[in-house]
Amino acid sequence: MDFDFAILLVGLVAFTGVFFLLDILVFKPKRSEGELAPQWLEFPASFFPVLLIVLALRSFLVEPFKIPTGSMIPTLLVGDYILVNKFAYGLRLPILGTEIIPIGEPKTGDIMVFKYPEQPSINYIKRVVGLPGDEIRYENKVIYLNGEPVQQVLEAQLPPAQPQIKIYNETLGGVEHDIMITLERPSEPSMTWTVPEGHYFMLGDNRDNSRDSRYWGFVPDKYVVGKAFAIWMSMPGWVPSFERNRFVD
């Protein structure tokens, strides 16, 4: 999604805030004398408190997102609506992403929403694999974190008779989650990265169908949006479903 709703929301708060202040400073004293404020002022001024509350909630507490692609299958499916904790990684200024109150930091294994480094108007969601200073190697579809292979346990082969997909349970930073491997996709050459200070290395759970840090590099801290923690609705088609509602790891 190229459209940045945060910029629009901040603009609307600023726009309506001007009318709200004008009403308070200029026309409120006149109301005590029985003079009414003009309609062109009352209408935008009345929206300011609501928009300000929405901006505060969305910027500092919880923000909803919709999953548009299959890069996080099997953890998150296309059409899942998720909730993102905006204060898990510290309170940040809207649009700028500058941390103003440190609360926590991303951890290995977290599902994180962030601004796509090559086009910051777009939000991406992937799993945190590497923290600053970590060495990441991806070889034969296995993650090596600081020289140690990340544990993978085979859970399923689909379809069982002639498997095309394998589902593994992976333990990353103490977080257990499922990943998907597509057998027809050949293993890429072994690659190694060292995560620079103030950056993170991200991978999708759908390992053979995800454009992530393997292709476009690291995520700077200023592009961190928040930590995904729950699915609250799914809409793969036109009808909403609540069967997948759950907390996610």
UniProtKB/TrEMBL annotation:
InterPro entries registered for this protein in UniProt? LexA/Signal_pep-like_sf (IPR036286), Pept_S26A_signal_pept_1 (IPR000223), Pept_S26A_signal_pept_1_CS (IPR019758), Pept_S26A_signal_pept_1_Lys-AS (IPR019757), Peptidase_S26 (IPR019533)
Q: What is this protein called?
A: Signal peptidase I
Question: Which residue ranges traverse the bilayer?
Answer: 6-27, 39-61
Catalysed reaction equations from the record: Cleavage of hydrophobic, N-terminal signal or leader sequences from secreted and periplasmic proteins
Keywords from UniProt, A to Z, are: Hydrolase, Membrane, Protease, Transmembrane, Transmembrane helix
Q: Which SUPFAM superfamilies match?
A: LexA/Signal peptidase (SSF51306)
Quote a single Gene Ontology cellular component term. membrane
Q: Which GO terms describe its molecular function?
A: serine-type endopeptidase activity; signal peptidase activity
Report the active site residues.
Answer: S71, K126
Hydrolase is among the record's keywords: yes
Q: Kindly give the membrane topology term recorded for this protein.
A: Multi-pass membrane protein
Subcellular location(s) of the protein: Membrane
Please report the stretch or stretches of sequence annotated as the Peptidase S26 domain.
42-232
**Family the entry assigns:** Belongs to the peptidase S26 family.
One of its GO biological process terms is: signal peptide processing
Q: What is the lineage of its organism?
A: Bacteria, Pseudomonadati, Pseudomonadota, Gammaproteobacteria, Pseudomonadales
Q: Does the keyword Hydrolase apply?
A: yes
The EC designation for this entry is 3.4.21.89
